[in-house]
Amino acid sequence: MTTSSKFKVRCPKCGSEMEYIIEKERLGNGELKIRTYYRCPVCGTIVGDQVLSVERIDGHIKVLVEESRRVIIRKRSTKKISVIKKLKELGLIK
């Protein structure tokens, strides 16, 4: 799920405004993991925000919050470049 935030976060790689993403996952043991992070719609860079783990133990709810400021820089696909290079090598394009 993408959501808007009143805080504007800029991509550390390209400077574009990033989207705030919330993902949830139910694990087999009944635990719920909620991950939040920022993603750049232009270059794909991801900046981690936090992970919430929620589980029920003996009638109580346990919540664990993990802060994550990890930055993942995605590389753009080089497939297009290699296809063009191959077509030039074959003499199909100039």
Query: Major sheet: size, sense and barrel closure?
Result: 6 strands, antiparallel
Count of discrete structural domains: 1
How widely separated are the two ends?
A: 44 Å
Helical fraction equals: 10-25%
* Shape call: elongated
> What is the succession of H and E elements?
EEEEEEH
Q: Mean pLDDT, rounded to whole units? A: 78
Q: How many strand units? A: 6
Helix/strand-derived category reads mainly beta
Strand content: 35-45%
Computed Rg: 20 Å
Total DSSP helices: 1
Give the low-pLDDT segments: none
Describe the structure.
- It is a single chain.
- The chain contains 1 helix and 6 strands.
- It is mainly β and 94 residues long.
- It has one domain (2-89).
- Strands 1, 2, 3, 4, 5 and 6 form a 6-stranded antiparallel beta sheet that branches.
- A hairpin with a 5-residue loop joins strand 2 and strand 3 (32-39).
- The termini are far apart.
